[in-house]
Amino acid sequence: MKAVKRGATAVALMSILLSGVAHAAGGKTLDTVKARGVLQCTGHDGSYLGFAEVDDKGNWKGLDIDLCRALATAVFGDPAKLKIVPISWAQRWPSLQSGEVDIVIKASGATLSRNTDLGLQFTNSYYLGTTKVMAHKELGLKSLKDAQGGTICIPAGTTQEQQVAAYTAKLGIKLEPVLIEKTEELEQAYFSGRCDLYAQWGPVLAIARAAKGKVEDHIILPDELAVEPEVMITRQNDDNWTNIANWMLSALVFAEQEGITSKNVDDIRAKPTSPQVAKFLGVAPGMGKGLGLSDDWAYNVIKRVGNYGEIFDRDLGKDSSYKMDRGLTNLWNNGGVLFPMVID
Fold first, then answer.
1. pTM, two decimal places
2. What is the CATH number of the domain that holds 168?
3. What is the per-residue pLDDT for 296?
């Protein structure tokens, strides 16, 4: 009889645990976040310059961090209602599936296996980057084809591993991979000469080279190994949460398209330039109800965080120490691929 009771208790406990996992994997994330009173978003276990880094005062900054702040503002009206959880590349998916974080905004690409095998869901792309390779100038390489037999540093647990393997196979060369998770250790390995080459996102290479003050000593080879759309990643079966993230991104882009900034948003809200803008800024109803947000959520985001252009300039562009060009990550009407969804 006691054995039966113990067995029943174990089954009941397992049911409770499984129901908790099921909720984390596909429940109402917005309700969970609101009840908790804070958004839990991904950081980095170190510094991923320009995207997720900690300044000398201990404050998080970067493009990914500002998108986390924008999402927290959309939900709560306050970017401070945010907890940044430092995680490694390999921890992204377990942390999301377990509910440790509510969304992954961590320079992560949309891939088939992440969607179909891991049960993840993607937003529209917020950054389009190419994978490039940097080499020590003294090696005299003109392209990656000249690097036969060399060593190449690659961030472990990322799509760059597959991209390097596929591209070198296509060229018919062999390279010795050196796989390291932490960006600081990876860059140390390359700049110390342990690796001949360093495969990374193009912007990360440019930032690393500039940060080391060694622009003249390293060349970024012309090869483009892949183009990867960086997306925000959510759990499947919670479409509303994915919709909120998508519309948050769209709001940032729409505001830039319409010339709405953190500095002039109050003036434009007082005199909207179109019915679309009136709805967007919460003057007319309808912007938030279908998402479970307040109608002024987009106004709060632009007021507190800025539009996409302001965020980019602050974290990567002309107002940052990196001075990066927008490239493809520009508005559709300015030579790029970013566009907002339609507010009707």
1. 0.80
2. 3.40.190.10
3. 98
